[in-house]
Design a protein that fits this description.
The protein is mainly α and 309 residues long. The chain has eleven helices and no strands. It folds into two domains: 184 residues, Ferritin (Up-down Bundle), CATH 1.20.1260; 125 residues, Ferritin, CATH 1.20.1260. The chain is globular. The chain starts with a helix and ends with a helix.
Amino acid sequence: MMSKTDFIRHSLELNLFFARIMKEHLVFVASAFTPKNYNLIQPANELKDSLDNLLVETVMLSNGVISPEAIASGEIITQFTLNAELATQYYTGIAIDTRITQAEASLVGSSHIIHNPMLEQRVYALNQKAIGITTAVAQLKETVLRDVLACRMFTHNYPLLADHILREARFYLKMLHKLQRFDETDTAIELIEQEIFWNRIMAEHSKFIRGFLDPTEEELMEIANNFAKEFDVLTEMALKTMDSHRDLSKITEESFEATQEIRKFKAQGTEGILQCKIKSIILPLLGDHTLREANHYMRLLKMFRHQAC
């Protein structure tokens, strides 16, 4: 059973990370629609606005409550996020509320918090709100994926990307429901499941980067391809570990090392895109988005390593 203070902290950290991820998915989805599917841009924008409001409330509740490790991890924002938002807004014409990013840059963490019943109630209500919004986001993503696979819709995103972002929405919902039950993620099976999930995400990021690079960027394409192969292997190894119940520590260590390297690659890539030094069709915010997911996974892996000791 999760303690009440852990419930508050884990909830706020989860929403700070994933609510931003969800709203950015909507930017990527809306920017890839053709004029024929203009009718889907409005619901995407309305959901994005709802997630903005959720983030504003989360930021307000988080100051002095979330852990210093979450702030330092780079999973909430990075040094590139604000400029990536401004550039993406310029390229797409989609409004992005950069005031949230500026507020997040001022967040202060605390190593110790005292239980506050009123804050607990507000966080519980926040999670319920997040569940409602994310359920609607998942439904929109399901519609897009279903229509793309049935050749009823064309979008400039890969079908795999549509599936990828849908899985992330479902994962967010799963974690929110666990928090609302005060369940802890501490069993070996749950840790393996998270490594399987995030190693697959890292592999797919590499494949998207490879596919979105200009064909002349052969060196970067090769690096991305090598990361894709490495994380595919790590995903398979984690799957086999779940079947055999063998020690996960070796795979955790290898995943940690691989994620450190891909994080550097993503940071360099995001900076290169912002400086117009890399030829691609990668939105600057997509580069920063994948970097933050690598940063989040790095923090999880550090916790997994600690639990294994």
